[in-house]
Design goal:
Blueprint lengths: L3 E2 L5 E7 L18 E8 L9 E5 L15 E2 L3 E7 L2
Antiparallel strand pairs: 1-3, 2-3, 2-6, 3-4, 4-5
Length: about 90
């Protein structure tokens, strides 16, 4: 079982992409360096060298999935930051 971490409503999480190099497989959807994405949630990674697994959203608010078997991105591809809302 993997722990799923969803931020509370008063916290907005964002991910600034710093590494858009392609993985060893052909992704269905991919990220672009320099863009900022909203973070939906993060989980423990399957590969411990990759930080946490980040699930991100596109501009329309839909999740971006690299493939049917990969639903998240490695956090080392992003600079993560948060904004606390009043």
């Amino acid at each position: 079982m993997v722990n799923l971490n969803i931020p509370p409503k008063y916290v907005a999480l964002y991910a600034h992409c710093i590494d858009d190099s392609l993985p060893s497989f052909e992704p269905d959807e991919w990220i672009k360096a320099g863009r900022i994405y909203a973070v939906k949630c993060f989980t423990e990674p399957l590969n411990v060298s990759e930080g946490v697994a980040v699930t991100i959203l596109n501009r329309e608010g839909q999740e971006i999935h690299p493939s049917a078997s990969h639903w998240s991105f490695a956090s080392n591809r992003f600079e993560l930051f948060s904004i606390y809302l009043n």
